[in-house]
Each structure stands twice: as C-alpha cells, then as structure tokens.
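Run: sequence + zinc ion -> complex structure.
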Amino acid sequence: MKQADLDRYHDRLTALSHRLKGDVSTLEEGAYRQTGGEASGSLSNMPLHMADLGSDTFEQQVTLSLLENEETQLLEITDALERIRQGKFGRCQVCGTEIAPERLDAVPYTRYCAACARKEQEGARADRLGSL
Ligand SMILES: [Zn+2]
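>> structure
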C-alpha cells in the first residue's frame, strides 16, 4: 500500500474515533439518565402495566447495546491505527490477503478480507443463536 493511501486511512480513522468519542459520551449520559429517579417517578403516576415496564427496559437495552457497539468500534479503530504504525494495515488477519480498497474505503478499520469477514459473521450469528 502506498504511503499516501496509508495517510488517507490514518486521517479517516482518526476523524472517526473523534466522532465516536463524542457519540459515546452522549449515549452514556442517556443511559444513566434512564436509570435515574425521573423514570421511576413517572412510572408511579400511572397504572403499572407490564407492557410499559417491558418497553422501558427494552429501550434502555437498545441504548446500552448501541454504546457497546460504539465502544467496540473505537477499539477496532485504535487497533487499525496501531496496524498502520506497524506496517500491517490493509492485510487480512486470517489469510494475509490484501483487503480490497473498496472494502477499506467502506470500513477502514476492518481486519478481514470479504471472504473471511463473511465466515466471521456467520460464526458470530451462530454464537448468538446458541446463547438464546
Ligand atoms: Zn482473509
């Protein structure tokens, strides 16, 4: 990979990580607010429906899982920047093939070529189904 391309990915990854750090702190505030006194206060003013309880918990879980995804993304970005420093960036970590430029343009912090990413995703989906 050319140095100019590496510089370009480095800039994109740095910009992404700054944006995500901003997003993560906003989401954290939201998640804490939902667990605070305000939510339980408003619940006591209305009849206690299981459905209401359920949707509150569900929304909170969605927020928390978004947070988890963004934190995971941040970790991936930090790793990708490290790979740029080590000269390993742009190669699949499973099979060592060069990752297609279109793929790196779409997801600059990807670790895998398209074929290995697909296998990885199928494995992850099987894990999730197994835990249900
Ligand atoms: Zn691969």
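>> summary
Helices lie at 3-35, 37-44, 50-86, 101-106, 114-131. Confidence is low (pLDDT under 50) at residues 39-45.
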